[in-house]
Specification:
Two copies of one chain form a homodimer.
Chain A (H helix, E strand, L loop, with lengths): L4 H25 L7 H12 L5 H8 L3 H13 L3 E5 L7 E5 L1 H21 L5 H18 L10
Antiparallel strand pairs in A: 1-2
Chain B binds a DNA duplex (23 and 23 nucleotides) through helix 2 and helix 4.
DNA sequence: TATTGTTATACTCTATAACTATA
DNA sequence: TATAGTTATAGAGTATAACAATA
């Protein structure tokens, strides 16, 4: 094993899509929450930040403004978040979770995580540590920001 | 660090979507290939297997038959693959790459991998080994099948 | 004039339900 | 009757281009 950057890229390119498909399928199967991955990520970001603007969310999640705007539309329509005009700068909007959104986010996080955790149960402690460390490493590259809290 | 299955799940749930977004964006930016992730995965599967049927591809990639059928439609229209009726069982189809598809797949693989590799260059050899090992571990869980070849 | 967001438009991805053709 | 695929339909995610409102 040379562990070249190329081999590393190859491994990621093969495994990441498979993981995502599992996550997506799992999220949709929980009819109670029924959130798509982008919706989930949007709610999670709003939960972790104080009244972010559309640009804040779009930038951090990595979507264009129109895409994000549409996702926000859906979440507002489902009464999971509120969208208000910022008083300081009326061009900006301020996003926040409703209590319903908060509840749903918590439920979705729990359900999906529980399912993933279930799939990971066959791993040894060593392997789990390995995966967590690798994710921490990749987070620095793909998310530009360190973990902000412990597992929620 | 407890390295519980729950923490492990949490880490994956946070990082995997970010990785995928990078991959998707990158794939779309290479106007020469211009493949979506599902299209890329479909081509790769056909490349790695001998004349698979629609069910083979759909099953392994984790899509329903209609979804897969539509993706195949697009690839056939772009002349990247061929779709022929199997002589043994006329209900089945046999998929194969055209030389154009083969070329495009190779190009897309190279371009995306190169971009990822570039992003991974800041990692130490130790970290790269860590990531590769973690991916190998996760592959067994999310892909049910071991790596079939070395990095291509 | 520059910034923030939304609307219009057009793809692709994805699923479920209903259908056709073959076995 | 069961299996392999396709078609019909619908909704979400995504982008680019054009627009409106505010600074």
């Amino acid at each position: 094993m040379k562990a070249s950057t190329d081999e590393c890229a190859h491994a990621i390119l093969e495994v990441a899509p498979a993981i995502m498909r599992t996550i997506r399928t799992e999220m949709r199967r929980h009819r109670t929450s029924d959130l798509s991955v982008p919706q989930f990520r949007t709610l999670a970001f709003i939960d972790n930040h104080e009244g972010p603007s559309l640009s804040d969310v779009a930038g951090h999640i990595g979507l264009t403004l129109p895409s994000m705007s549409k996702i926000v539309d859906g979440l507002v329509a489902r009464k999971l978040i509120t969208r208000e005009i910022a008083s300081a700068d009326r061009r900006r909007i301020t996003l926040a979770l409703t209590s319903r959104g908060q509840t749903l986010l918590t439920a979705a996080r729990g359900a999906t995580k529980a399912c993933l955790a279930e799939m990971l149960q066959s791993l040894s402690l060593t392997d789990r540590t390995l995966v967590i460390n690798a994710m921490e490493t990749l987070r620095l590259i793909f998310l530009q920001q360190p973990a902000n809290t412990a597992a929620r």
